[in-house]
């Protein structure tokens, strides 16, 4: 029997709607600036940019239970905590250098997610050419809904994506405005990483990202997937 010098942490998983089984999370990939308007507000030219990727640790994932009092703590070491609503795709197949049809087949389900960002730390890292990890991969930085199975339906390619803060609409777009659609994202990602079952991909956020303070309530939704409600405390 294998022995450890410390107790290993429990596996990270998300519930699956309509099923007793859970979805085990292996790795969380994120796509940077995959909506043209958001790319522009962050100073990029979306007509020239290929998708780029960064990661959050799977321990950043926090399940948001429907109809319950869900919250995330305001993180330490920042004065600029910002929201980014995203559609998350869940993979049950993987591989390298996937074709579009293989990428389509790999996508098993979806979740509504928040890519919470310590923007001041991210900006400082960018200015000095350093990694973004401190700005992106902190505790509780990836609140997510349960996984919604695709059930053999075509990949989501349209539908509203939105976020409100304290009842005021702050982000609102449509999946048709994705620069790279879901299958294309999986293809491009598989050219840089060998994807595996259990991987999650946060597919990018629309324009109008902004800051929240302790006490603020965020409601994020993706048409056809669901919504999450999270308070910052």
UniProtKB/TrEMBL annotation:
GO molecular function: acetylpyruvate hydrolase activity; metal ion binding
InterPro entries on file: Fumarylacetoacetase-like_C (IPR011234), Fumarylacetoacetase_C_sf (IPR036663)
Signal peptide segment: none
The keyword Metal-binding is assigned to this record: yes
Chain ranges of the Fumarylacetoacetase-like C-terminal domain: 28-232
Keywords assigned: Hydrolase, Metal-binding, Pyruvate
SUPFAM superfamilies with a match to the protein in the record: FAH
Protein name, per record: Fumarylpyruvate hydrolase
Top-level taxonomy: Bacteria, Pseudomonadati, Pseudomonadota, Gammaproteobacteria, Oceanospirillales
